[in-house]
């Protein structure tokens, strides 16, 4: 296939590198700034720097840009995309982008499939992109109105890139679950390191500190967009967390060991039942 990767940050760059490493597809790279393009060309992550002409040759377009930018890019370039081409995004939200991109696909004759690669790092940019980023990672697909054949084609590519489990969802189901599994932990990590004790943690911290604070090293521009776009799903999760924290705080404040122990034991039982 002719594959066009739009946006060569950590996800787009890693997708380009993985496609080149694990398949025989020809890869065009498109990026707002020229430096990542030159680096991608030099290291073999792309075969060619793409122009609008590449969109007319593309069998697959991978959008590695922020959600709003993904919609804007396709809206501005829809007439140039080859009819029959498959377009996939890599965004962490879906309700705000799947409907407009599906609508554009119907209007201009290409196919859109929502895609969320559940992988990343605390650092960003092409310099930290790697072909192995998706090794055994979960992949979420939102087929929408795409044909079975188009979905199979994307699934085949995902497996070639060494993803593990593939899950199918609607945009609403995706956003509801991602609010809990991904966005809420990022909120917790940021709130946690706001403590005035955080700068003095060295010598007093071990695995617990590392686990809970790791994702506080956040891409603020991206995640603020994700949080706000998904606020209808994220705010109820935050409310639930605050209620649970309040219950535990109350048990501590009252020095009610029985009540506190019951709450902690409940958490242990839930985690053990999941077998993870």
Q: Whole-number average pLDDT?
A: 96
Low-confidence stretches: none
Helix percent band:
40-55%
Number of separate helices = 11
Q: In words, what does this structure look like?
A:
It is a single chain. With 276 residues, the protein is an alpha/beta fold. The protein has two domains: 168 residues, Rossmann fold (3-Layer(aba) Sandwich), CATH 3.40.50.720; 101 residues, Orthogonal Bundle (6-phosphogluconate dehydrogenase C-terminal fold), CATH 1.10.3660. The protein has eleven helices and eight strands. The protein has an eight-stranded mixed sheet with strand order 3-2-1-4-5-6-7-8, sandwiched between helices. The longest helix has 23 residues. It is elongated and about 70 Å long.
List the helices and strands and how they pair.
Layout: E1 2-6, H1 10-22, E2 26-30, H2 34-43, E3 48-49, H3 52-55, E4 60-63, H4 67-77, E5 86-89, H5 98-108, E6 111-118, E7 138-142, H6 148-160, E8 166-168, H7 171-193, H8 207-213, H9 220-229, H10 231-253, H11 257-274
Parallel strand pairs: 1-2, 1-4, 2-3, 4-5, 5-6, 7-8
Antiparallel strand pairs: 6-7
Helix pairs in contact: 7-10, 10-11
Task: Fill in the keyword field for this structure.
2 domains, alpha/beta, 276 residues, Rossmann fold, 6-phosphogluconate dehydrogenase C-terminal fold, 8-stranded mixed beta sheet, single chain
């Amino acid at each position: 296939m002719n594959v066009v990767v739009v946006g060569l940050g950590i996800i787009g760059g890693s997708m380009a590198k993985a496609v080149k490493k694990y398949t025989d597809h020809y890869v065009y790279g498109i990026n707002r700034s020229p430096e990542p393009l030159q680096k991608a060309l030099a290291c073999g992550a792309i075969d060619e720097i793409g122009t609008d002409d590449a969109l007319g040759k593309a069998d697959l377009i991978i959008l590695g840009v922020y959600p709003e930018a993904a919609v804007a890019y396709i809206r501005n370039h829809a007439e140039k995309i080859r009819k029959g081409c498959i377009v996939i995004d890599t965004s962490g939200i879906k309700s705000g982008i799947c409907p407009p991109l599906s609508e554009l696909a119907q209007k201009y004759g290409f196919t859109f499939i929502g895609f969320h690669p559940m992988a990343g790092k605390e650092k960003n940019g092409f310099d930290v992109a790697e072909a192995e980023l998706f090794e055994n990672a979960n992949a979420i697909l939102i087929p929408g109105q795409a044909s079975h054949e188009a979905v199979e084609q994307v699934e085949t590519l995902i497996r070639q890139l060494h993803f593990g489990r593939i899950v199918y969802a609607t945009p609403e189901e995706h956003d509801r679950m991602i609010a809990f599994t991904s966005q809420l932990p990022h909120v917790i990590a940021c709130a946690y390191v706001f403590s005035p004790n955080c700068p003095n943690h060295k010598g007093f911290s071990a695995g617990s500190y590392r686990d809970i604070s790791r994702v506080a090293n956040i891409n603020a521009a991206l995640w603020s967009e994700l949080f706000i776009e998904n606020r209808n799903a994220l705010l109820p999760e935050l409310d639930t967390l605050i209620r649970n924290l309040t219950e535990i705080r109350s048990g501590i404040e009252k020095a009610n060991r029985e009540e506190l122990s019951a709450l902690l034991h409940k958490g242990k039982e839930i985690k053990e039942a999941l077998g993870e």
